[in-house]
Amino acid sequence: xxxxxxxxxxxxxxxxxxxxxxxxxxDKPKLNIERQRSFEERSLSELSIKIRxxxxxxxxxxxxxxxxxxxxxxxxxxxxxSFEPHPMIAEAWEALRKSLVFLRGQPVGTIAAVDHASEEVxxxxxxxxxxxxxSALAFLMNGEPDIVKNFLLKxxxxxxxxxxxxxxxxxxxxxxxxxxxLHDPVRKTDTLIADFGESAIGRVAPVDSGFWWIILLRxxxxxxxxLSLAETPECQKGMRLILSLCLSEGFDTFPTLLxxxxxxxxxxxxxxxxxxxxIQALFFMxxxxxxxxxxxxxxxxxFVERIVKRLHALSYHMRNYFWxxxxxxxxxxxxxxxxxxxxxxxxxxxxxxxxxxxxxxxMPTRGGYFIGNVSPARMDFRWFALGNCxxxxxxxxxxxxxxxxxxxxxxRWEELVGEMPLKISYPAIESHEWRIVTGCDPKNTRWSYxxxxxxxxxxxxLTAACIKTGRPQIARRAIELAESRLLKDGWPEYYDGKLGRxxxxxxxxxxxxxxxxxxxxxxxxxxxxxxxxISLEEDKAMKPLIKxxxxxxx
Length: 554
Known about the structure:
- This is Alkaline/neutral invertase.
- With about 550 residues, the chain is an alpha+beta fold.
- It has helices at about 40-55, 75-80, 90-100, 130-140, 145-160, 205-225, 230, 235-245, 275-295, 300-320, 325-335, 355-360, 385-395, 400-410, 415, 430-440, 460-470, 470-485, 510-525; strands spanning about 10-15, 100-105, 105-110, 125-130, 165, 170, 180-185, 190-195, 325, 370, 375, 380, 385, 425, 495, 500-505.
- About 45% of the residues are buried.
């Protein structure tokens, strides 16, 4: 972000303006009440035992709230366990701590990258909401929740700022894409600068920021047992404002969320406009995370009712119309078109000739995935890793669909993992299609960056999905690949090439979420009970809606 940029409501000198003091909110005592474990906690505990038995991991114990830290904290703690941690772990923690950002002496986040060799800083010196999530999980798993609490309070405070792009005012609930802290040693003030999309390439507001914020608030609550943060007026209002934006009524005929290109992790033009799987999966997960955290007062109760209705409609829509396996692909291939009735099978009037040739060879007999996008006369058959992994973790995918996604990853290992996990999307678009879809984007050339690039940060999502589906061996195989290159290559942002063999042509080194993603993956394998803070069990009430119906009503 250029230092000379002028914008409305984006600057605040914290030494002069009455800011939300992070230390002002009293720490309520954490709940240590003896209670019956929920089904989710019991199943995660049992899963942890099973995985350890399979992997021959012995003598490992889940840390109690506020108790023992992870094995990856200090050499002393590793002595309690039966194996030596990988030498990369200490290096990773050191690099992660170097990325910390402080506001008036308190840590509030981690910057995107600490790449001193790069001449162009751009906005990599900022704290991105989505980028901080794996860092936050690493600190939570390591028994250091304060930075996460500070981050959650700071971003919900920023949500209240007036947000304008040119002469247009953004919705009140929009969360920032990123923020940075400018220190003035002379005046002894900290100046906070936030970006809600008005400085981003393409000027697109981040739809995913609000969803990640809710998901992280729930992760903090699950990890610490501290309900007081989510119950504060600031966090309750923050959730309601986010929900107001995405649950508002309009002209939509689908329960999915309509988005512009570049509104998520894929923040450049890549043809994901419409109803991208990443946003739908995060939307679903955020709704489920918010449900138990909302107070059942007059305002909260109304939102709870709206969430429940939307979840039922959204799960039905996604499980039926976004899901693709061998049988469904064959059905689409045989679709009739121009059907006009409530009983139409080809509800979106997809032309079978629009199915790309590659998908017929890519689809294994066993396996399946949620495709990238579904809208009138359009199906984007590309694989997107983040959306499919979040679908598993949120239980948007049924247990059968979750297993099918893992089957696909195993069957198409070379294509989706290759020599560096994990392909953000597959396949790459190239030639004429690349020119039309990306607008000749020089950063998103074939098998690079968002266009089929390999992103190490996605290891934590893959690992979480593997543990939830009882397939930790897949995660271990992927992590071993990453360990052979990541440290030696300087923790790159992404890798290029069909197999992910080459450090990305514009990849930043010491990319914070590449570091944090690796740590989170390792800690979850060490103690699978950590999965509980980022995973949701299936809602049995939604199961009857999986059946394919002859009408749209559900």
